[in-house]
Amino acid sequence: MKTLLVLLAAVAAASAVRISDCDSTATVDFNNIQITGCFKNKRKCFFPKGQDASMSLPFTPHHEVTAVKAKVTAFIGVIPIPFSLPNSDGCVNSSLQCPMPAGQKGVYTSSLPIRKEYPPISLTVRWELLDQNNNKLVCIKFPVQVKN
Ligand SMILES: *[C@@H]1O[C@H](CO)[C@@H](O)[C@H](O)[C@H]1NC(C)=O
């Protein structure tokens, strides 16, 4: 019974934020992820066209990290579409200090330009951070509605 309650509480917390984990190996501080247009009481994040969506993502790696590469994929239904970031180097202009020692929290920041020509559709964004060996450090997913 106690286990069930803990489980239900965890599910409730996760569904309020609507940001899900996709096998991160680092510890992601989900309660403190901030994404423009993502509100805890909404089912989706709203990204207005012509603006930048910015993100602040705190995580703690469990090994030393000397390079960080960001990879963003948009899923329209089940179809993955790679999104090219203006700057995919997580160690440059992204708030992180590289190398990151094992066990020390860092905050990755980035922003995505939401171009005017994007269609006003619903999609799922998968944001991954890979380490120097192309291994997954962080993987999060969240639902987005592109707005006119
Ligand atoms: C990082 O920021 C500097 C200063 O704003 C800029 O000149 C440089 O092009 C940026 N580098 C990348 C990879 O975005």
TrEMBL record:
Keywords: Disulfide bond, Secreted, Signal
Entry annotated with the keyword Ligase: no
A single GO BP: intracellular cholesterol transport
Signal sequence interval, chain numbering: 1-16
GO terms under cellular component: extracellular region
InterPro entries named among the record's database cross-references: Ig_E-set, ML_dom, ML_Npc2-like, NPC2-like
Primary location: secreted
Any GO molecular function: sterol binding
Family: Belongs to the NPC2 family.
The protein's name: ML protein
Organism: Penaeus japonicus
